Amino acid sequence: MTERLGSEMCDFNRAMGIFAHEKPVREVVERIARLDPDWIHSMHGGSLPRESMPDFIRALREEPCAYEGRCSGAGSQPGPGAPQPSTG
Known about the structure:
Strand content: 5-15%
Order of helices and strands: HHEEHEE
Oligomer: single chain
């Protein structure tokens, strides 16, 4: 995979609820960036060669990617006492 799809990945992950919070994602992104791997083979999705990683790393560092409490694009209301979605 060599397309620059970092922004689209973040939008998709946020909409689908892939990541509950951004902080752990960003911590792992920093660890991966320090490793500077030749390839990343994701569990779901394409394999990323080194030359395509900067866009994905930038997007995960800078763009919102955590779940926002939506169900199929519609807002949902958490029940009493439920944790609120992260705002940043």
